[in-house]
Amino acid sequence: MTDLWRVVLDTNVYVAAFLSKSSTSPTNEILDRWEAGEFVLLFTDAILEEVAETFDAKDIEREITLKLITSLRGAAERVEVSEIPPVVIADPDDDVILAYAVNGGADVLVTYDPHLLDLGAEYRGVRIVEALPFLWALRGDESSPSMQRMEP
User: Is 147 helix (H, G, I), strand (E, B) or coil?
Assistant: First the structure.
């Protein structure tokens, strides 16, 4: 058996999943695949707070928010972040995501945030990709250009 990818999902990935009108959206499928045990999902308390605040701002039902947070606390791996070095000059709030990805030994950071994507394909050993290329890699789809030859 191969090791599972250790993955950080940015807040915007959760938002995309819960605002999607399609149950077959890439972000929904990623969450379904996490629930099926296809990868290890990492979180930190700061990301849970950001998810809750963002869901509230987007008028996502409070019950949905609580269910997601409960699910993450129960089945995802919590990462402590004690030091957050400044990296993303254009949006320092993104630094916490990078810090917990690195501290948690993440293989992949999935995001739609242009500030994080502008860092390039990788930051300190963590691949940075959008949801669809990550999903293709999870599926084993050979057409995934940004995840080619990536092994967990």
Answer: helix
User: Is position 1 within any domain?
Assistant: no
Residue 31 contacts residue 17 (beta carbons within 8 Å)? yes
> How far apart, in whole angstroms, are the C-alpha atoms of residue 34 and residue 26?
12
Distances (CA, A) of 77 to 39, 42, 44, 84, 150: 11, 5, 8, 19, 22
Selection from 122, 94, 119 nearest residue 106 by Cα: 122
Kindly report, residue by residue over 76-98, the tens digit of the pLDDT. Answer: 999 998 788 788 878 878 899 99
**Positions in the chain short of pLDDT 50:** 1, 149
Query: How many structural domains are present in the chain?
Result: 1
In a domain, 123, yes or no: yes
